[in-house]
Specification:
This protein has 6 helices and 7 strands, in the order E-H-E-E-H-E-E-H-H-H-E-H-E. By secondary structure, the chain is α+β, with helices and mostly antiparallel strands. Strand 4 and strand 5 form a beta hairpin. 17% of the residues lie in helices and 21% in strands. It is globular and about 50 Å long.
Length: 186
């Protein structure tokens, strides 16, 4: 089984509650790193303007480039659920993984030699049969998680949106219900 995230772009209002909940749950300092982020895109020209949001974290890819390039074998992928993890004690802070991740999911604090860090899919919550905190916190229920094969069978889903780089190389464990951009009529 491969766990993944589902994101319903039609429901997201860009409130950043998922980001704040993640920072709070994982005791992350303000401003330095965000294991989850919300990207906003504005498109069009007045009067035909549209705005869309997407909530992103580590995509726990099926073929994670970060795992391939880590010279210390500090990044791995769990066989039972496909979660990509970092063994902090093995990480030397070389930052090679940072450049390998096309999604900007791996981050470093500004300290010299700080280890890599990223979303861990809230494995502590999963162990207690709880959803990842970002999923639980979303007031619009735009985020969900589960077996990626099951999530992929939901109506109107896709594996790509213009907010993301091409994921054919890494095969992100993420599916979307995209927001269809409609033009306003005068």
């Amino acid at each position: 089984m491969q766990l993944g995230f589902y994101f319903d772009q039609t429901r997201c209002i860009g409130c950043h509650t998922c980001v704040v909940a993640c920072k709070d749950w994982n005791d992350l300092p303000a401003g330095l790193v965000s294991w989850r982020r919300v990207d906003t895109r504005e498109q069009g020209k007045f009067p035909d303007v549209t705005v869309s949001h997407i909530s992103l974290s580590c995509n726990h890819c099926r073929q994670p480039k970060c795992v391939e390039v880590c010279p210390e074998d500090a990044i791995g992928k769990r066989e039972e659920d496909g979660i990509v993890f970092i063994e902090i004690e093995k990480c030397t802070g070389c930052r090679i993984c940072e450049g390998a991740c096309p999604y900007g999911a791996i981050q470093f604090r500004p300290d010299d030699g700080a280890p890599a860090e990223k979303c861990n899919f809230c494995v502590d919550r999963l162990a207690n049969d709880e959803a990842p905190v970002c999923v639980s916190a979303c007031p619009m229920r735009a985020l969900d998680f589960g077996d990626l094969d099951e999530l992929s069978r939901r109506p109107d889903v896709t594996t790509w949106t213009d907010h993301l780089p091409d994921s054919r190389e890494t095969t992100a464990s993420l599916v979307f219900k995209p927001r269809v951009m409609s033009r306003l009529k005068r």
